């Protein structure tokens, strides 16, 4: 194995030039659409692209936003430590896209709404709509801040890439092209960034496989190291990753932040027809599989390269998330511009996620608050307000990224908020769409119960991390390292395990040790079960509600016939 004692390089001028090109092109797309669409000054044109988008760019945009820099940097590290079972997420992605396209999309698209939460007012009442919108705004700002900060920190600590420069550049550029070009700029910029992500991954795959001795060597070493044990059918919900947690739990997790998420649905309803929207989702599935495959293979190549000298155990990096940038700098450091290409790949995921979040936040705020308070706004005024909201939320997300630097371990909790909120929100929409009997009290009560349960298990798991017998990290070796381990590096594992197993009570080893992928399922089941029970106790909803308009009745009838047909097939 190669000498690992040398230090990896840092960013050079060529790397900064490649990285800067990503920001220049992204900004240029925003300017292009600002000039092109300057005569179409309406909030609908700005927020949903005039509902004239085609399936291709929307599919690329969905994939780019779905795969943030957390995936580009974090997924290979997960495979490195826990094995290739991560690939089973592909099963979850399939279910998520199918359910979104066939169940949720028709409801939102045919209703003609701009904010997904408008449906909740039509189905239940304004209070439910406002509550859901506020939950979405809070969780999205928190999550977006972490999506910006976490990869920037990992890249800074490994490559020397300026931390605050990258954070502020991300916030400024995203806000710039979102404000100028609206949804069309977001979609086309995402499409460009998706191409950058794939090219960056392919660069790492080709050079990494070459340095690791070829694909056969990667396969053999990964198999020997236990990384190819993909299918574990243990039904224990406390296990971190098994076939069931990844496929079933992963479906609930991603459906909660995908199927009823404003960012996703907003781009789907921007398509010119429902057929285009459905095709966009299915083409996006192909993109998800490609990115997932690249991430998993990158993790296996990285494990093969470091199979005899793990940089984390040896103290060369201080956190697992730094492994991928460290690996890239080691294999690509001799090629000017290529490390910059990988960083552009990672930040393409960040830019696409942040831009989609800013645009979605502006949309729900305008539709659910501004337009409800000021119903007689002119198109010009509505357009300027929408742009101003993009600026406000761009500043908010960037500020959250700065705040994340002072949060320490709470960053992990902030990343989990998406899952903890997504499950109850999925349950709330499911009560409205799948269970016509659900009344207002059931919806409100179910949401409260679901949020309580998912946050109880999520926060508890953060305070009492699961023991290693549930997470089961695979063995890492430092036998081939050419330098001495520090005391901290040599006893790191034993210290962490003893810390985890002391002062624990029964909930810590049962309820709080549940796989993080089931948090969303807990919230979903709690919301639906409590909602139906409260409805049963208080009297079911009259679905012909005099309070609902004809469009909602049409929605309910359409969805009821769809469910009847599905039940007949089953």
From TrEMBL:
GO terms for molecular function: symporter activity. GO terms for biological process: sodium ion transport. Its main location: membrane. Gene3D superfamilies: Sodium/glucose cotransporter. Keywords: Cell membrane, Glycoprotein, Ion transport, Membrane, Sodium, Sodium transport, Symport, Transmembrane, Transmembrane helix, Transport. PANTHER family: SODIUM-COUPLED MONOCARBOXYLATE TRANSPORTER, SODIUM-COUPLED MONOCARBOXYLATE TRANSPORTER 2. Belongs to the sodium:solute symporter (SSF) (TC 2.A.21) family. This is Solute carrier family 5 member 12. It comes from Cyprinus carpio carpio.
């Amino acid at each position: 194995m190669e000498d690992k004692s040398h230090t990896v390089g840092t960013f050079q001028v060529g790397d900064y030039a490649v990285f800067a090109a990503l920001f220049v092109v992204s900004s240029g797309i925003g300017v292009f659409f600002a000039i092109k669409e300057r005569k179409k000054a309406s909030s609908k044109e700005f927020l949903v692209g005039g509902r004239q988008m085609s399936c291709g760019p929307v599919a690329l945009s969905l994939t780019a936003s779905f795969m943030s820099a957390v995936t580009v940097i974090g997924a290979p590290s997960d495979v490195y430590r826990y094995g290739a079972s991560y690939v089973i997420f592909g099963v979850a992605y399939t279910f998520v896209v199918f359910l979104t396209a066939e169940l949720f999309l028709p409801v939102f698209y045919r209703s003609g709404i701009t904010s997904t939460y408008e449906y909740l007012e039509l189905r239940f009442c304004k209070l439910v709509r406002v509550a859901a919108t506020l939950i979405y705004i809070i969780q999205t700002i928190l999550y977006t801040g972490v999506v910006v900060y976490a990869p920037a920190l990992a890249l800074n600590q490994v490559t020397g890439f300026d931390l605050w420069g990258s954070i502020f550049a991300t916030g400024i550029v995203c806000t710039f092209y979102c404000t100028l070009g609206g949804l069309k700029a977001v979609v086309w910029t995402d499409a460009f960034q998706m191409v950058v992500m794939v090219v960056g991954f392919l660069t790492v795959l080709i050079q990494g496989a070459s340095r690791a001795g070829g694909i056969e060597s990667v396969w053999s070493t990964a198999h020997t190291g236990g990384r190819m044990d993909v299918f574990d059918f243990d039904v224990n919900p406390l296990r971190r990753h098994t076939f069931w947690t990844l496929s079933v739990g992963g479906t609930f997790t991603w459906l909660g932040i995908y199927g009823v998420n404003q960012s996703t649905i907003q781009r789907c309803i921007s398509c010119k027809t429902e057929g285009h929207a459905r095709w966009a989702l299915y083409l996006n599935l192909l993109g998800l599989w490609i990115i997932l495959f690249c991430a998993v293979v990158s993790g296996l190549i990285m494990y093969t390269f470091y199979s005899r000298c793990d940089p984390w155990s040896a103290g060369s990096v201080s956190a697992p998330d730094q492994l991928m940038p460290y690996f890239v700098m080691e294999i690509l450091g001799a090629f000017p511009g290529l490390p910059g290409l990988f960083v552009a790949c990672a930040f393409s995921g960040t830019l696409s996620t942040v831009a989609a979040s800013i645009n979605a936040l502006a949309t729900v705020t305008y539709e659910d608050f501004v337009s409800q308070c000021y119903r007689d706004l002119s198109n010009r005024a509505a357009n300027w307000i929408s742009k101003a909201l993009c600026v406000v939320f761009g500043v908010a997300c960037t500020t959250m990224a700065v705040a994340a630097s002072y949060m320490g371990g709470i960053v992990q909790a902030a990343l989990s908020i998406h899952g903890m909120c997504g499950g109850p929100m999925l349950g709330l929409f499911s009560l409205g769409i799948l269970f016509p009997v659900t009344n207002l009290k059931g919806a409100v009560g179910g949401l409260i119960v679901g949020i309580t349960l998912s946050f109880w298990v999520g926060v508890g798991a953060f305070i009492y991390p699961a023991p290693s017998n549930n997470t089961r990290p695979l063995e890492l070796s430092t036998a081939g390292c050419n330098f001495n381990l520090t005391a901290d590096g040599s006893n790191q594992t034993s210290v962490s395990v003893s810390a985890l197993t002391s002062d624990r009570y029964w909930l810590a080893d049962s309820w709080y040790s549940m796989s993080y992928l089931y948090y969303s399922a807990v919230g979903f089941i709690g919301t639906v079960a409590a909602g139906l029970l409260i409805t049963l106790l208080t009297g079911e909803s009259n679905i012909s509600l005099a309070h609902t308009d004809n469009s909602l009745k049409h929605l309910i009838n359409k969805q009821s016939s769809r469910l009847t047909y599905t039940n007949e097939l089953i």
